[in-house]
Automatic annotation (TrEMBL):
It comes from Thermosporothrix hazakensis. One of its GO terms (biological process) is Mo-molybdopterin cofactor biosynthetic process. Belongs to the FdhD family. It holds the Pfam family FdhD-NarQ. GO terms for cellular component: cytoplasm. Coiled coil: none annotated. This is Sulfur carrier protein FdhD. GO terms for molecular function: sulfur carrier activity; sulfurtransferase activity. Required for formate dehydrogenase (FDH) activity. Acts as a sulfur carrier protein that transfers sulfur from IscS to the molybdenum cofactor prior to its insertion into FDH.
Length: 281
Protein backbone atom coordinates (compact mmCIF):
# COMPACT_ATOMS: atom_id res chain seq x y z
CA UNK A 1 0.00 0.00 0.00
CA UNK A 2 1.17 3.52 -0.72
CA UNK A 3 -0.11 7.08 -0.53
CA UNK A 4 -1.94 6.68 2.78
CA UNK A 5 -4.15 9.60 3.82
CA UNK A 6 -7.09 10.26 6.15
CA UNK A 7 -10.65 10.08 4.96
CA UNK A 8 -12.31 13.52 4.97
CA UNK A 9 -15.59 11.84 5.95
CA UNK A 10 -14.12 10.26 9.10
CA UNK A 11 -10.54 11.54 9.57
CA UNK A 12 -10.13 10.02 13.03
CA UNK A 13 -11.08 6.44 12.31
CA UNK A 14 -10.72 5.79 8.58
CA UNK A 15 -7.63 6.11 6.37
CA UNK A 16 -7.59 5.79 2.59
CA UNK A 17 -4.81 4.49 0.42
CA UNK A 18 -3.93 2.78 -2.84
CA UNK A 19 -3.56 -0.99 -2.98
CA UNK A 20 -2.42 -3.36 -5.70
CA UNK A 21 -5.24 -5.85 -6.19
CA UNK A 22 -4.83 -9.19 -7.94
CA UNK A 23 -7.73 -11.17 -9.41
CA UNK A 24 -6.38 -14.40 -10.90
CA UNK A 25 -3.64 -13.14 -13.29
CA UNK A 26 -4.98 -9.58 -13.55
CA UNK A 27 -3.49 -6.75 -11.51
CA UNK A 28 -4.89 -3.29 -10.92
CA UNK A 29 -4.41 -0.43 -8.49
CA UNK A 30 -7.44 0.77 -6.59
CA UNK A 31 -8.41 2.78 -3.53
CA UNK A 32 -9.03 1.01 -0.26
CA UNK A 33 -10.04 2.03 3.24
CA UNK A 34 -8.32 1.04 6.48
CA UNK A 35 -9.30 1.35 10.12
CA UNK A 36 -6.94 3.74 11.89
CA UNK A 37 -4.82 2.34 14.72
CA UNK A 38 -2.76 4.73 16.85
CA UNK A 39 -1.11 4.71 20.29
CA UNK A 40 -3.09 6.39 23.05
CA UNK A 41 -1.45 7.41 26.32
CA UNK A 42 -3.45 7.55 29.54
CA UNK A 43 -2.08 9.65 32.37
CA UNK A 44 -3.43 9.85 35.91
CA UNK A 45 -2.81 13.14 37.69
CA UNK A 46 -0.08 13.89 35.17
CA UNK A 47 1.71 10.54 35.52
CA UNK A 48 1.83 8.20 32.54
CA UNK A 49 0.11 4.90 33.31
CA UNK A 50 -0.78 3.16 30.04
CA UNK A 51 -0.21 3.23 26.30
CA UNK A 52 -3.08 1.58 24.44
CA UNK A 53 -3.19 0.73 20.76
CA UNK A 54 -6.66 1.79 19.70
CA UNK A 55 -8.88 3.34 17.05
CA UNK A 56 -9.25 7.08 17.83
CA UNK A 57 -12.62 8.31 19.03
CA UNK A 58 -14.40 8.30 22.39
CA UNK A 59 -11.01 8.54 24.08
CA UNK A 60 -12.32 9.85 27.40
CA UNK A 61 -14.65 6.85 27.58
CA UNK A 62 -11.79 4.49 26.80
CA UNK A 63 -9.60 6.03 29.50
CA UNK A 64 -12.34 5.86 32.14
CA UNK A 65 -13.42 2.33 31.22
CA UNK A 66 -9.86 1.04 31.08
CA UNK A 67 -8.92 2.48 34.48
CA UNK A 68 -12.07 1.06 36.06
CA UNK A 69 -11.89 -2.43 34.55
CA UNK A 70 -8.17 -2.69 35.32
CA UNK A 71 -8.87 -1.90 38.98
CA UNK A 72 -6.90 1.35 38.99
CA UNK A 73 -10.08 3.19 40.02
CA UNK A 74 -12.92 1.66 41.98
CA UNK A 75 -15.75 4.18 41.59
CA UNK A 76 -16.94 6.66 38.94
CA UNK A 77 -16.87 9.39 41.57
CA UNK A 78 -13.07 9.13 41.73
CA UNK A 79 -12.74 11.06 38.45
CA UNK A 80 -12.78 14.84 38.67
CA UNK A 81 -12.21 15.46 34.95
CA UNK A 82 -10.57 14.04 31.85
CA UNK A 83 -8.67 16.53 29.76
CA UNK A 84 -6.22 16.62 26.88
CA UNK A 85 -2.65 16.58 28.16
CA UNK A 86 -0.55 19.63 27.32
CA UNK A 87 3.12 20.01 26.50
CA UNK A 88 5.66 22.41 28.02
CA UNK A 89 4.24 25.24 25.90
CA UNK A 90 0.71 24.60 27.07
CA UNK A 91 -0.39 23.12 23.75
CA UNK A 92 -2.62 20.02 23.59
CA UNK A 93 -0.79 16.76 22.94
CA UNK A 94 -2.52 14.53 20.40
CA UNK A 95 -3.48 11.03 21.57
CA UNK A 96 -2.74 11.81 25.24
CA UNK A 97 -5.30 12.38 28.01
CA UNK A 98 -4.84 13.19 31.65
CA UNK A 99 -7.37 11.80 34.10
CA UNK A 100 -7.54 14.11 37.10
CA UNK A 101 -8.80 12.49 40.30
CA UNK A 102 -10.80 13.98 43.12
CA UNK A 103 -8.71 15.32 46.03
CA UNK A 104 -7.65 12.55 48.36
CA UNK A 105 -8.13 9.74 45.81
CA UNK A 106 -5.05 7.58 45.24
CA UNK A 107 -5.08 5.26 42.22
CA UNK A 108 -4.45 1.58 42.84
CA UNK A 109 -1.43 -0.04 41.23
CA UNK A 110 -2.36 -3.54 40.02
CA UNK A 111 0.70 -5.66 39.41
CA UNK A 112 3.11 -3.33 41.17
CA UNK A 113 4.49 -0.02 40.02
CA UNK A 114 4.86 -0.90 36.34
CA UNK A 115 3.07 0.89 33.55
CA UNK A 116 0.75 -0.88 31.15
CA UNK A 117 1.47 -1.41 27.47
CA UNK A 118 -1.69 -2.70 25.83
CA UNK A 119 -1.94 -3.91 22.25
CA UNK A 120 -5.17 -3.87 20.29
CA UNK A 121 -5.39 -7.68 20.47
CA UNK A 122 -4.72 -8.24 24.15
CA UNK A 123 -6.87 -7.26 27.05
CA UNK A 124 -6.40 -7.44 30.77
CA UNK A 125 -2.82 -6.91 31.89
CA UNK A 126 -1.68 -7.95 35.34
CA UNK A 127 -4.40 -10.44 36.36
CA UNK A 128 -4.49 -13.90 34.83
CA UNK A 129 -6.26 -15.83 37.54
CA UNK A 130 -9.99 -16.26 38.04
CA UNK A 131 -9.38 -16.77 41.75
CA UNK A 132 -7.70 -13.36 41.99
CA UNK A 133 -10.52 -11.70 40.09
CA UNK A 134 -13.51 -13.15 41.93
CA UNK A 135 -11.78 -12.39 45.21
CA UNK A 136 -11.82 -8.69 44.28
CA UNK A 137 -15.13 -8.57 42.39
CA UNK A 138 -18.05 -10.61 43.74
CA UNK A 139 -20.15 -12.71 41.35
CA UNK A 140 -23.46 -11.29 40.21
CA UNK A 141 -26.27 -12.01 42.64
CA UNK A 142 -28.94 -14.46 41.59
CA UNK A 143 -31.59 -12.35 39.90
CA UNK A 144 -34.89 -12.55 38.06
CA UNK A 145 -33.44 -11.34 34.77
CA UNK A 146 -34.96 -13.31 31.90
CA UNK A 147 -34.12 -12.90 28.23
CA UNK A 148 -36.17 -14.04 25.25
CA UNK A 149 -34.37 -16.19 22.69
CA UNK A 150 -36.25 -14.23 20.01
CA UNK A 151 -34.62 -11.04 21.30
CA UNK A 152 -31.17 -12.62 21.21
CA UNK A 153 -31.58 -13.84 17.62
CA UNK A 154 -32.25 -10.25 16.48
CA UNK A 155 -29.14 -8.73 18.04
CA UNK A 156 -26.42 -9.58 15.46
CA UNK A 157 -28.33 -7.84 12.67
CA UNK A 158 -28.93 -4.80 14.89
CA UNK A 159 -25.24 -4.66 15.75
CA UNK A 160 -24.16 -4.95 12.13
CA UNK A 161 -26.53 -2.18 11.03
CA UNK A 162 -24.83 0.26 13.39
CA UNK A 163 -21.20 -0.56 12.51
CA UNK A 164 -20.45 2.57 10.53
CA UNK A 165 -16.66 2.16 10.22
CA UNK A 166 -16.77 -1.61 9.69
CA UNK A 167 -18.99 -1.07 6.67
CA UNK A 168 -16.12 0.90 5.07
CA UNK A 169 -13.09 -1.08 6.25
CA UNK A 170 -14.25 -4.55 7.31
CA UNK A 171 -11.61 -4.52 10.05
CA UNK A 172 -13.12 -3.20 13.28
CA UNK A 173 -14.60 -5.04 16.21
CA UNK A 174 -17.85 -3.83 17.71
CA UNK A 175 -19.38 -4.00 21.16
CA UNK A 176 -23.06 -3.25 21.55
CA UNK A 177 -25.15 -2.73 24.65
CA UNK A 178 -28.81 -3.69 24.43
CA UNK A 179 -31.76 -3.60 26.79
CA UNK A 180 -33.32 -6.88 27.89
CA UNK A 181 -36.02 -6.24 25.28
CA UNK A 182 -33.39 -5.93 22.53
CA UNK A 183 -33.39 -2.15 22.14
CA UNK A 184 -29.98 -0.79 21.05
CA UNK A 185 -28.53 1.41 23.78
CA UNK A 186 -24.96 2.08 22.70
CA UNK A 187 -22.36 0.85 20.20
CA UNK A 188 -18.61 1.38 20.02
CA UNK A 189 -16.09 0.19 17.41
CA UNK A 190 -12.35 -0.33 17.78
CA UNK A 191 -9.47 -2.40 16.43
CA UNK A 192 -9.44 -4.06 19.86
CA UNK A 193 -12.63 -5.77 21.02
CA UNK A 194 -11.71 -5.11 24.65
CA UNK A 195 -11.20 -1.41 23.82
CA UNK A 196 -14.72 -1.29 22.38
CA UNK A 197 -16.08 -2.77 25.62
CA UNK A 198 -14.05 -0.31 27.71
CA UNK A 199 -15.57 2.55 25.70
CA UNK A 200 -19.07 1.29 26.50
CA UNK A 201 -18.25 1.00 30.18
CA UNK A 202 -16.52 4.37 30.18
CA UNK A 203 -19.62 5.98 28.69
CA UNK A 204 -21.70 4.59 31.53
CA UNK A 205 -19.20 5.81 34.11
CA UNK A 206 -19.05 9.33 32.68
CA UNK A 207 -22.81 9.68 32.10
CA UNK A 208 -24.11 8.23 35.38
CA UNK A 209 -25.61 5.21 33.61
CA UNK A 210 -23.66 2.61 35.52
CA UNK A 211 -23.74 -0.29 36.34
CA UNK A 212 -25.46 -2.15 33.49
CA UNK A 213 -27.42 -4.64 35.57
CA UNK A 214 -30.29 -5.02 33.08
CA UNK A 215 -28.39 -5.10 29.81
CA UNK A 216 -27.01 -7.52 27.23
CA UNK A 217 -23.48 -7.13 25.88
CA UNK A 218 -22.87 -8.37 22.32
CA UNK A 219 -19.37 -8.49 20.84
CA UNK A 220 -18.62 -9.07 17.19
CA UNK A 221 -15.79 -11.58 17.57
CA UNK A 222 -14.79 -14.21 20.05
CA UNK A 223 -15.24 -13.87 23.81
CA UNK A 224 -12.08 -13.90 25.89
CA UNK A 225 -11.49 -13.95 29.62
CA UNK A 226 -10.86 -10.20 29.45
CA UNK A 227 -14.31 -9.48 28.00
CA UNK A 228 -15.96 -11.47 30.79
CA UNK A 229 -13.82 -9.69 33.38
CA UNK A 230 -15.02 -6.33 32.10
CA UNK A 231 -18.64 -7.51 32.01
CA UNK A 232 -18.36 -8.68 35.60
CA UNK A 233 -17.03 -5.30 36.68
CA UNK A 234 -19.91 -3.60 34.86
CA UNK A 235 -22.41 -6.09 36.39
CA UNK A 236 -23.71 -7.20 32.98
CA UNK A 237 -25.78 -10.40 33.37
CA UNK A 238 -25.58 -11.65 29.77
CA UNK A 239 -22.67 -11.64 27.30
CA UNK A 240 -23.17 -12.87 23.75
CA UNK A 241 -20.78 -13.18 20.83
CA UNK A 242 -20.83 -14.04 17.15
CA UNK A 243 -17.93 -16.46 17.63
CA UNK A 244 -16.68 -18.86 20.30
CA UNK A 245 -15.62 -18.16 23.88
CA UNK A 246 -12.34 -19.33 25.34
CA UNK A 247 -12.28 -22.01 28.03
CA UNK A 248 -11.24 -19.46 30.63
CA UNK A 249 -14.12 -17.17 29.63
CA UNK A 250 -16.55 -20.06 30.16
CA UNK A 251 -15.05 -20.84 33.56
CA UNK A 252 -15.29 -17.23 34.68
CA UNK A 253 -18.88 -16.91 33.42
CA UNK A 254 -19.87 -19.99 35.39
CA UNK A 255 -18.32 -18.68 38.60
CA UNK A 256 -19.47 -15.08 38.07
CA UNK A 257 -23.13 -16.00 37.40
CA UNK A 258 -23.05 -14.49 33.90
CA UNK A 259 -25.04 -16.03 31.06
CA UNK A 260 -22.51 -16.63 28.26
CA UNK A 261 -23.60 -17.20 24.66
CA UNK A 262 -21.45 -17.99 21.64
CA UNK A 263 -21.99 -18.62 17.93
CA UNK A 264 -25.06 -16.36 17.94
CA UNK A 265 -25.89 -16.58 14.25
CA UNK A 266 -29.21 -16.72 12.46
CA UNK A 267 -31.58 -18.51 14.80
CA UNK A 268 -29.06 -20.65 16.66
CA UNK A 269 -26.60 -20.23 19.50
CA UNK A 270 -24.60 -22.13 22.09
CA UNK A 271 -25.15 -21.30 25.76
CA UNK A 272 -22.03 -22.03 27.79
CA UNK A 273 -23.04 -20.79 31.23
CA UNK A 274 -26.25 -20.05 33.15
CA UNK A 275 -28.90 -20.96 30.55
CA UNK A 276 -31.62 -20.52 33.17
CA UNK A 277 -31.98 -16.85 32.20
CA UNK A 278 -33.28 -17.71 28.72
CA UNK A 279 -36.93 -18.00 27.78
CA UNK A 280 -38.22 -20.06 24.84
CA UNK A 281 -40.09 -17.30 23.08
Amino acid sequence: MNGLWRSPQDPLRVARGTVTHWQEATMQEREDMLAVEEPFEVRVNGESLAVIMRTPGHDAELAAGFLFTEGVLHAPSAIAEIQAAVDADGLPQPNVVDVRLQPGITPARPGGERRFAVSSSCGLCGKNSIADLVQDVPPLASDRVRISTTVLYRLPDLLREQQAVFSHTGSLHAAGLFSLDGDPLLLREDVGRHNAVDKLIGYGLLHQQFPFERSILLVSGRTSFEILQKALKARIPCVAAISAPSSLAVELAQQANITLIGFLRGRSMNVYAHPERLLER
